[in-house]
Amino acid sequence: MDRRTVLKGTAALAAAAPLAVGTAQGMTARRLIVFDSRLPESASFAAGVAGQRFDLARAHETQWAELRGDLPEVGGVEGLIGWSDWTAVRGELESRGFRRTSEARIAAPLSGKANLFRWSMMKR
User: Fold this and answer.
1) How many CB atoms are located within 10 Å of the residue 77 CB?
2) 124 has a pLDDT exceeding 90
3) Which residue in 9, 14, 50, 88 has its CB near the most CB atoms, within 10 A?
């Protein structure tokens, strides 16, 4: 990893910051933060946002049992994850009464993925 890659990753995370500020205004204090600890950008995002954590690395190991089980009572959910995980998480959360409030594609040079998705959902 070189300096340019690190700077690109920092710029991508900075681009996600305005989304976090804008969506947090409408959410209750209790939030669920969805991230993937295997992806540096996602882990960094989760470390900088307050809320209860949900690590998708564990979800993959348990075949999504945690996501299908009892989730904590929260008013909002935020995440920075890959597209395929985002589609699975979004479908499950929509079935539980959450609606998407924002979604943005973020470059992810550190994790080797073309893009990650920064998103927010609120309870209807």
Assistant:
1) 26
2) no
3) 9
Among candidates 42, 25, 19, which has minimal Cα distance to 112? 42
pLDDT in tens, 13-29: 544 544 444 444 444 45
Q: Which of 50, 51, 53, 61 is nearest to 81 (CA)?
A: 53
- Helix/strand/coil for 114: strand
Distance CA 39, CA 57 (A): 9
Nearest Cα to Cα of residue 28 among 66, 78, 68, 67: 78
Distances (CA, A) of 94 to 20, 44, 101: 20, 26, 12
Query: Taken in order 44, 57, 94, 104, is the CA torsion positive or negative?
Result: positive
